[in-house]
Amino acid sequence: AQTQLVQSEKMVSLGQLVAGIAHEINNPIGAIYANMPPLEEYIDDIKGTVEFAQSCMDEPGAEKLNTHMEQIDYTFVTEDLAKLLGSQKQAADRIRNIVLALRNFSRLDQGEVKTVRLEEGLDSTLQMLHHTYKDRITIEKDYALNEMVECYAGELNQVFMNILANAIQAIPDKGGIFITTAKVNDQAVISIADTGIGMPEEVRKKIFDPFFTTKEVGEGTGLGLSISYGIIEKHHGALTVESELNRGTRFIIAIPLRLIKDA
Ligand code: ADP
Ligand code: MG
């Protein structure tokens, strides 16, 4: 019990740390966004001035103007500058989304009951994993649940993280991941399917066992799915898997829309 207490205190302070970092990043990001419109306007002005100066270059007495204009890189001023600013904005958008995802995760303390859209948890998780799949895996989503779900939201996010990270790791090169949500008989059902390496029967039988892993030392702990299984059990739900070797794997999570409290 002693070590467990220490462990849960650690979790809380990690959550607070992440929330603090997210907050700190938000301020400079705000400044970057605030600077964007005046910069855009200024670039527009410069572009106008340069274009006007260009149109004057053939006028009599424009020699002095010409020597100045020769030093100006026209494509830089009229095109590249705006493009650069555009990609700055994209980068800022990306940071803002990561911060949003971090916040989504950190504000959900372990053991806390919340009523949430599970799709938000799935999207935040994808956002956090984005750098591990962006160039090689296409994600297709069909979100049809359209219901809020009462659950241990922070813990469900851990389940999404484990299953999605496994799916990404199971795709050696290019492939796809298909995520669907639906309501079936007052249950929220989430399916996560990948076009990865799949599993032979003898592996599939053991994946929920603690410390079972087929990954190299340091790459896998073998804990993800056993922890996930426990979390779904706590929701009185079901976590099932279908897999075909060299074709892919599908995990199906089903939980009641309202939490069933243990007696
Ligand atoms: P870890 O990822 O640390 O190995 P997990 O409990 O998350 O531990 O998974 C256990 C094992 O289940 C993995 O090592 C792998 O062999 C298998 N597995 C899990 N998800 C998939 C998947 N999507 N495709 C193929 N194998 C998988
Ligand atoms: Mg794992």
Automatic annotation (TrEMBL):
<protein>
    <recommendedName>
        <fullName>histidine kinase</fullName>
    </recommendedName>
</protein>
<feature type="domain" description="Histidine kinase">
    <location>
        <begin position="20"/>
        <end position="259"/>
    </location>
</feature>
